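User: Let's play a game. I give you a shape written as C-alpha coordinates, and you guess the letters that built it. Ready? Here's round one.
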Protein backbone atom coordinates (compact mmCIF):
# COMPACT_ATOMS: atom_id res chain seq x y z
CA UNK A 1 0.00 0.00 0.00
CA UNK A 2 1.38 3.43 -1.00
CA UNK A 3 2.26 5.86 1.74
CA UNK A 4 0.02 8.36 -0.04
CA UNK A 5 -2.98 6.37 1.22
CA UNK A 6 -1.68 6.92 4.75
CA UNK A 7 -1.39 10.65 4.03
CA UNK A 8 -5.03 10.79 2.85
CA UNK A 9 -6.19 8.92 5.96
CA UNK A 10 -4.16 11.33 8.07
CA UNK A 11 -5.74 14.36 6.43
CA UNK A 12 -9.30 13.15 6.95
CA UNK A 13 -8.70 11.83 10.47
CA UNK A 14 -6.79 14.82 11.83
CA UNK A 15 -9.14 17.35 10.26
CA UNK A 16 -11.91 15.65 12.22
CA UNK A 17 -9.83 15.56 15.43
CA UNK A 18 -8.84 19.24 15.28
CA UNK A 19 -12.41 20.22 14.46
CA UNK A 20 -13.64 18.32 17.53
CA UNK A 21 -11.26 20.17 19.84
CA UNK A 22 -12.33 23.62 18.61
CA UNK A 23 -15.99 22.65 18.29
CA UNK A 24 -16.22 21.48 21.91
CA UNK A 25 -14.66 24.74 23.13
CA UNK A 26 -16.94 26.94 20.99
CA UNK A 27 -20.14 25.10 21.94
CA UNK A 28 -19.19 25.21 25.63
CA UNK A 29 -18.43 28.95 25.49
CA UNK A 30 -21.70 29.63 23.65
CA UNK A 31 -23.53 27.84 26.48
CA UNK A 32 -21.90 30.11 29.07
CA UNK A 33 -19.08 27.83 30.23
CA UNK A 34 -16.17 29.38 32.15
CA UNK A 35 -12.48 29.06 31.15
CA UNK A 36 -12.13 26.43 33.89
CA UNK A 37 -14.90 24.34 32.29
CA UNK A 38 -13.32 24.67 28.85
CA UNK A 39 -10.03 23.55 30.38
CA UNK A 40 -11.73 20.58 32.03
CA UNK A 41 -13.25 19.55 28.68
CA UNK A 42 -9.82 19.75 27.04
CA UNK A 43 -8.41 17.58 29.81
CA UNK A 44 -11.11 14.95 29.27
CA UNK A 45 -10.33 14.99 25.54
CA UNK A 46 -6.71 14.13 26.39
CA UNK A 47 -7.58 11.57 29.08
CA UNK A 48 -8.08 8.59 26.75
CA UNK A 49 -4.92 9.23 24.70
CA UNK A 50 -3.11 9.27 28.04
CA UNK A 51 -4.61 5.96 29.12
CA UNK A 52 -4.58 4.16 25.76
CA UNK A 53 -1.63 5.37 23.65
CA UNK A 54 0.93 2.87 24.92
CA UNK A 55 -1.56 0.00 24.58
CA UNK A 56 -2.54 1.14 21.06
CA UNK A 57 1.13 1.29 20.05
CA UNK A 58 1.63 -2.26 21.34
CA UNK A 59 -1.44 -3.44 19.41
CA UNK A 60 -0.25 -1.70 16.23
CA UNK A 61 3.14 -3.46 16.46
CA UNK A 62 1.43 -6.85 16.88
CA UNK A 63 -1.81 -6.61 14.87
CA UNK A 64 -1.37 -3.90 12.24
CA UNK A 65 -3.31 -0.71 11.63
CA UNK A 66 -6.55 -1.24 9.74
CA UNK A 67 -8.98 -2.15 12.51
CA UNK A 68 -7.44 0.25 15.01
CA UNK A 69 -7.99 3.15 12.60
CA UNK A 70 -11.53 1.98 11.90
CA UNK A 71 -12.28 1.91 15.63
CA UNK A 72 -10.92 5.44 15.95
CA UNK A 73 -13.22 6.73 13.21
CA UNK A 74 -16.28 5.06 14.77
CA UNK A 75 -15.53 6.51 18.21
CA UNK A 76 -15.03 10.04 16.85
CA UNK A 77 -18.29 9.92 14.90
CA UNK A 78 -20.18 8.57 17.90
CA UNK A 79 -18.89 11.35 20.13
CA UNK A 80 -19.94 14.14 17.75
CA UNK A 81 -23.45 12.76 17.37
CA UNK A 82 -24.12 13.37 21.08
CA UNK A 83 -24.37 17.22 21.00
CA UNK A 84 -26.62 16.90 17.94
CA UNK A 85 -29.28 15.29 20.12
CA UNK A 86 -28.38 16.42 23.66
CA UNK A 87 -27.86 20.08 24.60
CA UNK A 88 -25.76 20.95 27.62
CA UNK A 89 -22.17 21.09 28.86
CA UNK A 90 -22.51 17.69 30.57
CA UNK A 91 -23.07 16.03 27.18
CA UNK A 92 -19.86 17.63 25.92
CA UNK A 93 -17.88 15.66 28.50
CA UNK A 94 -19.10 12.41 26.90
CA UNK A 95 -18.24 13.81 23.47
CA UNK A 96 -14.75 14.68 24.67
CA UNK A 97 -14.28 11.20 26.16
CA UNK A 98 -15.30 9.32 22.99
CA UNK A 99 -13.44 11.68 20.66
CA UNK A 100 -10.36 11.33 22.86
CA UNK A 101 -10.51 7.57 22.45
CA UNK A 102 -10.70 8.03 18.68
CA UNK A 103 -7.74 10.40 18.79
CA UNK A 104 -5.67 7.85 20.72
CA UNK A 105 -6.20 5.24 17.99
CA UNK A 106 -5.54 7.60 15.08
CA UNK A 107 -2.48 9.48 16.28
CA UNK A 108 -0.29 6.56 17.33
CA UNK A 109 -1.19 4.35 14.38
CA UNK A 110 -0.81 6.97 11.64
CA UNK A 111 2.54 8.26 12.91
CA UNK A 112 3.82 4.69 13.14
CA UNK A 113 2.56 3.91 9.63
CA UNK A 114 4.60 6.77 8.18
CA UNK A 115 7.74 5.42 9.82
CA UNK A 116 7.34 1.74 8.92
CA UNK A 117 6.34 2.54 5.32
CA UNK A 118 9.55 4.58 4.83
CA UNK A 119 13.03 3.38 4.01
CA UNK A 120 15.71 4.99 6.23
CA UNK A 121 16.80 7.39 3.50
CA UNK A 122 13.15 8.45 2.95
CA UNK A 123 12.18 8.89 6.58
CA UNK A 124 12.99 12.59 6.98
CA UNK A 125 11.21 13.45 3.73
CA UNK A 126 8.14 11.36 4.54
CA UNK A 127 7.78 12.75 8.06
CA UNK A 128 8.13 16.22 6.55
CA UNK A 129 5.36 15.39 4.06
CA UNK A 130 3.25 13.97 6.90
CA UNK A 131 3.73 17.24 8.75
CA UNK A 132 2.53 19.10 5.64
CA UNK A 133 -0.64 17.02 5.71
CA UNK A 134 -1.27 17.86 9.36
CA UNK A 135 -0.59 21.53 8.61
CA UNK A 136 -3.32 21.40 5.96
CA UNK A 137 -5.63 19.96 8.62
CA UNK A 138 -4.73 22.76 11.03
CA UNK A 139 -5.64 25.26 8.33
CA UNK A 140 -8.84 23.61 7.09
CA UNK A 141 -10.37 22.53 10.40
CA UNK A 142 -10.68 25.86 12.27
CA UNK A 143 -11.84 27.75 9.18
CA UNK A 144 -14.56 25.22 8.38
CA UNK A 145 -15.59 24.67 11.99
CA UNK A 146 -15.73 28.34 12.96
CA UNK A 147 -17.64 29.25 9.81
CA UNK A 148 -20.15 26.43 10.25
CA UNK A 149 -20.80 27.34 13.88
CA UNK A 150 -21.42 30.99 12.93
CA UNK A 151 -23.50 30.49 9.80
CA UNK A 152 -25.17 27.07 10.14
CA UNK A 153 -25.10 26.34 13.84
CA UNK A 154 -23.36 23.73 16.01
CA UNK A 155 -25.50 20.85 14.75
CA UNK A 156 -24.28 21.32 11.17
CA UNK A 157 -20.70 21.59 12.42
CA UNK A 158 -21.03 18.33 14.35
CA UNK A 159 -22.48 16.53 11.32
CA UNK A 160 -19.59 17.79 9.19
CA UNK A 161 -17.12 16.04 11.53
CA UNK A 162 -19.26 12.89 11.51
CA UNK A 163 -19.12 12.88 7.70
CA UNK A 164 -15.30 13.07 7.81
CA UNK A 165 -15.18 10.02 10.07
CA UNK A 166 -17.55 8.26 7.64
CA UNK A 167 -15.10 8.88 4.80
CA UNK A 168 -12.33 7.26 6.86
CA UNK A 169 -14.52 4.23 7.55
CA UNK A 170 -15.25 3.71 3.84
CA UNK A 171 -11.58 4.04 2.89
CA UNK A 172 -10.49 1.52 5.50
CA UNK A 173 -13.21 -1.00 4.68
CA UNK A 174 -12.50 -0.86 0.93
CA UNK A 175 -8.72 -0.42 0.74
CA UNK A 176 -7.42 -0.89 4.29
CA UNK A 177 -6.42 -4.50 3.71
CA UNK A 178 -3.27 -3.25 1.93
CA UNK A 179 -1.86 -1.58 5.05
CA UNK A 180 1.16 -3.25 6.70
CA UNK A 181 0.36 -6.15 9.00
CA UNK A 182 1.69 -6.46 12.53
CA UNK A 183 4.21 -8.96 13.82
CA UNK A 184 1.48 -11.15 15.34
CA UNK A 185 3.49 -11.87 18.49
CA UNK A 186 5.46 -9.98 21.13
CA UNK A 187 9.14 -9.47 20.40
CA UNK A 188 11.80 -10.69 22.78
CA UNK A 189 14.06 -8.21 24.50
CA UNK A 190 14.04 -5.48 27.06
CA UNK A 191 10.88 -3.60 27.83
CA UNK A 192 10.25 -0.05 26.80
CA UNK A 193 11.58 1.62 29.97
CA UNK A 194 14.96 -0.10 29.68
CA UNK A 195 15.15 0.48 25.95
CA UNK A 196 14.28 4.14 26.45
CA UNK A 197 16.99 4.67 29.02
CA UNK A 198 19.69 3.00 26.94
CA UNK A 199 18.83 4.75 23.66
CA UNK A 200 18.48 8.32 24.95
CA UNK A 201 14.73 8.42 24.31
CA UNK A 202 14.05 10.40 27.49
CA UNK A 203 15.48 13.53 25.94
CA UNK A 204 13.28 13.02 22.91
CA UNK A 205 10.32 12.59 25.25
CA UNK A 206 11.11 15.84 27.07
CA UNK A 207 11.42 17.79 23.82
CA UNK A 208 8.24 16.29 22.42
CA UNK A 209 6.30 17.10 25.60
CA UNK A 210 7.33 20.76 25.46
CA UNK A 211 6.22 20.92 21.83
CA UNK A 212 2.82 19.35 22.40
CA UNK A 213 2.04 21.24 25.60
CA UNK A 214 2.87 24.53 23.90
CA UNK A 215 0.62 23.78 20.93
CA UNK A 216 -2.24 22.73 23.19
CA UNK A 217 -1.89 25.83 25.36
CA UNK A 218 -1.96 28.03 22.26
CA UNK A 219 -5.10 26.33 20.95
CA UNK A 220 -6.59 26.55 24.45
CA UNK A 221 -5.74 30.24 24.95
CA UNK A 222 -6.78 31.67 21.59
CA UNK A 223 -10.51 30.79 21.72
CA UNK A 224 -10.82 32.01 25.33
CA UNK A 225 -8.82 35.20 24.75
CA UNK A 226 -10.55 35.86 21.42
CA UNK A 227 -13.99 35.32 22.94
CA UNK A 228 -13.05 37.63 25.80
CA UNK A 229 -12.19 40.53 23.47
CA UNK A 230 -15.35 40.05 21.42
CA UNK A 231 -14.14 38.09 18.40
CA UNK A 232 -16.68 35.85 16.63
CA UNK A 233 -16.18 32.12 16.17
CA UNK A 234 -15.30 32.56 12.50
CA UNK A 235 -12.66 35.22 13.30
CA UNK A 236 -11.17 32.95 15.96
CA UNK A 237 -11.05 30.26 13.30
CA UNK A 238 -9.18 32.65 10.97
CA UNK A 239 -6.61 33.40 13.70
CA UNK A 240 -6.01 29.68 14.26
CA UNK A 241 -5.94 29.24 10.49
CA UNK A 242 -3.07 31.74 10.29
CA UNK A 243 -1.10 29.51 12.66
CA UNK A 244 -1.82 26.54 10.42
CA UNK A 245 -0.91 28.42 7.24
CA UNK A 246 2.48 29.30 8.70
CA UNK A 247 3.06 25.69 9.73
CA UNK A 248 2.37 24.63 6.14
CA UNK A 249 4.68 27.28 4.64
CA UNK A 250 7.61 26.50 6.90
CA UNK A 251 7.27 22.75 6.37
CA UNK A 252 7.66 23.24 2.63
CA UNK A 253 10.99 24.89 3.38
CA UNK A 254 12.05 22.42 6.08
CA UNK A 255 14.46 20.31 3.98
CA UNK A 256 16.45 23.47 3.14
CA UNK A 257 16.31 24.72 6.72
CA UNK A 258 17.57 21.37 8.03
CA UNK A 259 20.40 21.34 5.47
CA UNK A 260 21.38 24.88 6.50
CA UNK A 261 21.00 24.71 10.29
CA UNK A 262 20.86 21.05 11.25
CA UNK A 263 17.97 19.38 13.03
CA UNK A 264 18.90 20.33 16.59
CA UNK A 265 19.70 23.99 15.91
CA UNK A 266 16.47 24.38 13.96
CA UNK A 267 14.51 22.76 16.80
CA UNK A 268 16.07 25.06 19.43
CA UNK A 269 15.44 28.18 17.31
CA UNK A 270 11.79 27.20 16.82
CA UNK A 271 11.29 27.02 20.60
CA UNK A 272 12.73 30.51 21.15
CA UNK A 273 10.52 31.92 18.40
CA UNK A 274 7.45 30.28 19.93
CA UNK A 275 8.26 31.77 23.35
CA UNK A 276 8.35 35.25 21.80
CA UNK A 277 4.95 34.65 20.17
CA UNK A 278 3.35 33.71 23.50
CA UNK A 279 4.62 36.92 25.10
CA UNK A 280 3.31 39.04 22.22
CA UNK A 281 -0.14 37.44 22.05
CA UNK A 282 -1.87 39.29 24.94
CA UNK A 283 -0.50 42.68 23.83
CA UNK A 284 -3.10 43.12 21.09
CA UNK A 285 -6.87 43.13 20.76
CA UNK A 286 -6.80 43.41 16.96
CA UNK A 287 -7.76 40.31 15.00
CA UNK A 288 -5.21 41.14 12.31
CA UNK A 289 -2.35 41.47 14.79
CA UNK A 290 -3.42 38.30 16.58
CA UNK A 291 -3.38 36.48 13.24
CA UNK A 292 0.14 37.78 12.57
CA UNK A 293 1.32 36.55 15.98
CA UNK A 294 -0.38 33.21 15.34
CA UNK A 295 1.50 33.04 12.03
CA UNK A 296 4.77 33.59 13.92
CA UNK A 297 3.86 30.80 16.35
CA UNK A 298 2.97 28.54 13.41
CA UNK A 299 6.42 29.03 11.91
CA UNK A 300 7.95 27.90 15.19
CA UNK A 301 5.73 24.88 15.76
CA UNK A 302 5.72 23.94 12.08
CA UNK A 303 9.38 23.02 12.52
CA UNK A 304 9.37 21.54 15.99
CA UNK A 305 6.48 19.08 15.65
CA UNK A 306 7.82 16.88 12.81
CA UNK A 307 11.36 17.07 14.18
CA UNK A 308 10.20 15.80 17.58
CA UNK A 309 8.27 12.89 16.01
CA UNK A 310 11.25 11.98 13.81
CA UNK A 311 13.55 12.11 16.84
CA UNK A 312 11.29 9.72 18.73
CA UNK A 313 10.89 7.22 15.88
CA UNK A 314 14.63 7.25 15.15
CA UNK A 315 15.44 6.39 18.77
CA UNK A 316 12.88 3.59 19.03
CA UNK A 317 14.09 -0.04 19.37
CA UNK A 318 13.64 -2.24 16.31
CA UNK A 319 10.11 -3.61 16.05
CA UNK A 320 8.87 -1.38 18.87
CA UNK A 321 8.23 1.89 17.06
CA UNK A 322 4.51 1.76 17.80
CA UNK A 323 5.16 1.40 21.51
CA UNK A 324 7.79 4.16 21.41
CA UNK A 325 5.36 6.56 19.76
CA UNK A 326 2.67 5.39 22.18
CA UNK A 327 5.01 6.19 25.08
CA UNK A 328 5.61 9.64 23.57
CA UNK A 329 1.89 10.30 23.39
CA UNK A 330 1.34 8.95 26.91
CA UNK A 331 3.87 11.42 28.32
CA UNK A 332 2.46 14.23 26.17
CA UNK A 333 -1.09 13.53 27.21
CA UNK A 334 -0.20 13.40 30.89
CA UNK A 335 0.60 17.08 30.47
CA UNK A 336 -2.42 17.61 28.23
CA UNK A 337 -4.77 16.25 30.89
CA UNK A 338 -3.24 18.26 33.72
CA UNK A 339 -2.34 21.37 31.73
CA UNK A 340 -5.72 22.70 30.49
CA UNK A 341 -7.42 22.07 33.83
CA UNK A 342 -4.62 23.82 35.76
CA UNK A 343 -4.33 26.69 33.29
CA UNK A 344 -8.11 27.01 33.06
CA UNK A 345 -8.19 27.46 36.83
CA UNK A 346 -5.40 30.03 36.64
CA UNK A 347 -7.28 31.90 33.93
CA UNK A 348 -10.49 31.91 35.94
CA UNK A 349 -8.71 33.17 39.07
CA UNK A 350 -6.06 35.56 37.71
CA UNK A 351 -6.86 36.21 34.04
CA UNK A 352 -4.97 35.15 30.93
CA UNK A 353 -1.65 36.96 31.47
CA UNK A 354 -0.08 34.33 33.77
CA UNK A 355 -0.96 31.62 31.25
CA UNK A 356 0.87 33.40 28.45
CA UNK A 357 3.96 33.95 30.61
CA UNK A 358 4.10 30.32 31.80
CA UNK A 359 3.56 29.08 28.24
CA UNK A 360 6.52 31.18 27.08
CA UNK A 361 8.60 29.64 29.88
CA UNK A 362 7.66 26.13 28.71
CA UNK A 363 8.89 26.98 25.23
CA UNK A 364 12.09 28.49 26.58
CA UNK A 365 12.72 25.24 28.48
CA UNK A 366 12.26 23.32 25.24
CA UNK A 367 14.84 25.56 23.61
CA UNK A 368 17.35 24.80 26.37
CA UNK A 369 16.79 21.03 26.18
CA UNK A 370 17.02 20.82 22.40
CA UNK A 371 20.27 22.74 21.95
CA UNK A 372 23.00 20.77 20.10
CA UNK A 373 25.21 18.81 22.45
CA UNK A 374 22.92 19.24 25.47
CA UNK A 375 21.53 16.28 27.40
CA UNK A 376 19.15 16.19 30.34
CA UNK A 377 22.14 15.60 32.64
CA UNK A 378 23.52 19.03 31.66
CA UNK A 379 20.41 20.91 32.84
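Assistant: Ready! My guess for every position:
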Amino acid sequence: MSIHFTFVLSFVGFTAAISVRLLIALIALAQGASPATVGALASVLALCPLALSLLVGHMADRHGSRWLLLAGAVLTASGLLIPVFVIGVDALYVTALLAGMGLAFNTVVLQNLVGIQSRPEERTRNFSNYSLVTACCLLAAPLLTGGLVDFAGPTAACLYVVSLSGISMVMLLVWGGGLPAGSGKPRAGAGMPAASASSGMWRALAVSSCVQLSIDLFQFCVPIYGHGIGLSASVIGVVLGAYAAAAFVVRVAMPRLIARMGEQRLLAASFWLGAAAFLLLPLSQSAAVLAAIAFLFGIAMGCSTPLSILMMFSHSPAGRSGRALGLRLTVNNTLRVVGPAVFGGIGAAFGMWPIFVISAAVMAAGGLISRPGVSLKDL
